[in-house]
Structures are given as C-alpha cells and as structure tokens.
Specification:
With 117 residues, the protein is of the alpha+beta class. It has one domain. The chain is 14% helix and 26% strand. It has a five-stranded mixed β-sheet, covered by helices on one side. It has a two-stranded antiparallel ribbon with strand order 4-5. A hairpin with an 8-residue loop joins β4 and β5. The longest helix has 10 residues.
C-alpha cells in the first residue's frame, strides 16, 4: 500500500495561534495593492492627522498587527507632532504571510470577525 495524500495543519495559518500583540495604524491608499510599504502610526489620531496634512481624504485608516513591538519615534519631517514607527513597514493583507522584521498585517475589521466561522 502507498500513501496517496498528505495533509498538514498550521495553527498559525488557521488562526489558532495569535502572537501578534503589537498594534499600530496605517493610512491605506485605495490605489495601492498589498503587500506594500507604508508608515505605521502609534494612534489612529496620528494616522488621521498625517492623512489630512497630506490631502489623502479618500484613504482608509486601518489597524495593523505585528509580532514584535514597533519602535516609536516622533516625526522629524515637515509634519511635526506625530508618533510613528522608526521605518517603513511592509503591510500584508492577512496573518498568513511569513513574519519578518518590518512586516505587519491588516487586522480584521469587526464585520470580518462576525462573518468568519
């Protein structure tokens, strides 16, 4: 006899393990496709302020999660008084992408959580 099928289960991919305790916020432009690089902000208010000052009124603000703490710093450019991560992060659409340094994923929104089995 020969084994015909092999099956593997991944607790991480199935959402059973949630080690993404660190959160931030991104301004997600509609024309961008994921994964993409974006600034990560410490609070929703910081992201809203940055979005308004850059004229990105149609951009969506989304929560992101990471597996390591974000290193926050005050902005140093022309926009002052905003706290953001010390570098750009690659933003992935979900947690199924391999965790790496400077990578985060979009957190599920409440309507997505209600729809998931």
């Amino acid at each position: 006899m020969r084994a015909l099928f092999f099956s593997f289960a991944c607790d991480h991919c199935d959402g059973l393990v949630d080690s993404f305790d660190f959160r931030g916020f991104v301004v997600l432009r509609r024309e961008r496709t994921l994964p993409c690089e974006e600034y990560v902000f410490a609070t929703r208010a910081d992201a809203e302020r940055w979005r308004e000052l850059n004229g990105l009124f149609d951009a969506e603000i989304r929560e992101v999660r990471g597996d390591k703490p974000f290193r926050w710093q005050p902005s140093r450019g022309t926009v002052r008084g905003i706290i953001l991560a010390d570098r750009l992060f690659e933003i992935c659409p979900d947690h199924k992408f391999e965790p790496r340094p400077n990578r985060a994923f979009l957190a599920q929104q409440p309507e997505q959580l209600a729809a998931s089995p």
